[in-house]
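Please, structure for the following, as tokens.
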Amino acid sequence: MSELDKKITIYLGRKPNFNSEVILQDDGNESYIKEWNANDKIKPTEAQLNALDVQANALEASNQVIANRKTEYPSIEECVHAILDDDLVALQEKRAAVKLKYPKEGS
């Protein structure tokens, strides 16, 4: 089962402010919506949120791929040096290797 914050993000179609708009709480069993202050949609039911499991799991997987890629992509400094040293081909090859290592779902 995916995390509640991801389901809420999908339900709203955007990431809410979890400090003011949607306040979550976990008393040890599982997380739940303590307070709903989002004005653009009414508070979802448990069934509505559960119906978003597949999409939320896909969002989590996509976020993990992005995080993995960020740790292995060339740094800004490496990019600047590649640009200044006219070595863009090598830079693009490094990025392509990282993308191949961590493919996005459906790619």
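Residues 1-70 form a domain with the Phenylalanyl-tRNA Synthetase; Chain B, domain 1 fold (CATH 3.30.56). The mean pLDDT is 91.
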